[in-house]
Write a structure and sequence with these properties.
The protein has about 100 residues and is mainly beta. The chain is built from one helix and six strands; from the N terminus they run βαβββββ. The mean pLDDT is about 80.
């Protein structure tokens, strides 16, 4: 049973990192496939905190951190939308029993 998921970002320019993280989702899955997994958290539309915790009462084997930028989509101000947005996660802590 998962109670909390706590992702932490690399400590670089906070605004740049927030723009990269913006719009991310956290899923829990039993097989590592996002299809059929449980959505625990969906960020948006404001820029996210870089270190936060979310409650997710479910069970599974995998936590999936998912983020994408699609061409032709108008994203909110502050979202990083360059052609090669990369994530710099330092750590993801999953608490449960």
């Amino acid at each position: 049973m998962i109670f909390a998921i706590v992702p932490s970002a690399k400590n670089v320019s906070e605004m740049r990192q927030q723009g990269r993280f913006a719009g991310f989702s956290l899923y829990v899955s039993n097989d590592g496939d996002i299809d059929g997994s449980f959505l625990c958290y969906k960020d948006g539309p404001n820029l996210p905190l870089l270190n936060f915790s979310t409650t997710c009462i479910t069970s599974g084997r995998y936590v999936i951190f998912y983020n994408e930028r699609q061409g032709g989509v108008a994203y909110p101000v502050g979202y990083e939308v360059s052609g090669s947005v990369s994530m710099e996660l330092c750590e993801v802590v999953v608490n449960g029993r």
